Amino acid sequence: MSEMAMLQQLYFHVMGRFALMIVVLVALVSPSISQDQASKRSPTVSLILPSGMPSEDAQIDYFMDGSFGEHGDFVRTEKNRLTYNIYASVNGHPAKGIKVIAYLPGCEITTLDIPVLSARSERHLPCKPLASITLLGQILPVSMTLEEPTEVEVSYLAMWDHKFFGISDGMVTTIRLATVVPDDNGRFKVKLPDLYKQKLGDGLFQFLLRHSITGNIIASLRPLESGTDSNRLRVRSCYPPVMQFVAQRQ
Q1: d(CA 237, CA 194)
Q2: Residue 248: how many CB atoms within 10 A of its CB?
Q3: Domains, the chain, ranges and CATH?
Q4: Is pLDDT larger for residue 232 or for residue 27?
Q5: Angle ∠(85,87,90) on CA atoms, nearest 5
Q6: Contact yes or no for 208/231 (Cβ under 8 A)
Q7: How confident is the model at residue 96, as a pLDDT?
Q8: Tens digit of pLDDT for each residue in 71-110?
Q9: What distance in Å separates the CA atoms of residue 130 and residue 109, rounded to the nearest whole number?
Q10: Of 7, 26, 137, 180, which is most buried, counting CB atoms within 10 Å of its CB?
Q11: Closest CA relative to residue 156, chosen from 228, 220, 113, 204
Q12: Nearest Cα to 111, choosing from 166, 165, 151?
């Protein structure tokens, strides 16, 4: 093969690989471009946080309905945000309305029912201060907290959310409240929002024992109370001086 033929073959080989790279790049970039264009065309509901509220601590769940049916999701939060936008459409079909459950630490839980009537609307998330109550807990057996590094994760389960969203099934809105480390005696102390005073409906507190390094669930913590085998604790105005929990391995 002549030197000229070899150069031509090398040229076509390089150009072929370059063209393939262009096709791949276009395929990768096109979906993100189309998603950005779709979000710009979508009706938008902007939720404005109170001034000074750490935006990464907000927890916002929402549910929308329209010609597409029903769709639920939650807002991915991050630091240094004043506003969170919810794009009120699914596959290009606009929603008729959005219902929001929002929790800001130290504030009452906010519920919003927002009709989607324009391309852009705004709602302020209020912060009505909510008192807290202190719960002292003890994990039994104590050995469960000594075998490996552990922490207790406390969450609120909004059992009333289906009625508010107007749905019959699906996952319950779960709000993470705190993570605390038990001492060598299996005792822990946590401040719970006094949701009994807000009277939103049936609500439950959930306690999980996690590995503090991996985050894996070690056990669910069942309140040791007579007449119940529930793994959740009902929202009340007060609790015993020390609430005992039985660790049940997952």
Answers
A1: 7
A2: 14
A3: 44-124 (2.60.40), 132-249 (2.60.40.1120)
A4: 232
A5: 160
A6: no
A7: 94
A8: 999 999 999 999 999 999 999 999 999 999 999 999 999 9
A9: 9
A10: 137
A11: 204
A12: 165
User: Is residue 112 helix, strand or coil?
Assistant: strand
**Full-model pTM:** 0.81
Lowest mean pLDDT among 3-12, 120-129, 157-166, 179-188: 3-12
Note the Cα 131 to chain centre separation in Å: 23
Pairing mode, strands 110-115 and 93-103? antiparallel
State which amino acid sits at residue 19.
A
Distance between CA atoms of residues 83 and 72, nearest Å: 20
> In this structure, are residues 86 and 44 in contact, taking their beta carbons and an 8 Å threshold?
yes
What six digits make up the tokens of 24? 């791949």
Q: Which of 31-40, 77-86, 115-124, 206-215 bottoms out in mean pLDDT, i.e. has the lowest? A: 31-40
SS3 11: helix
Instruction: Give the burial string for 172-194 (b: 16+ CB within 10 Å, else e).
Output: ebbbebbebebeeebebebebbb
Residue written as token pair 């009452």: 108
DSSP, residue by residue, 49-92: PPTT--GGG-EEEEEEEETTEEEEEE----SS-SEEEEE-EETT
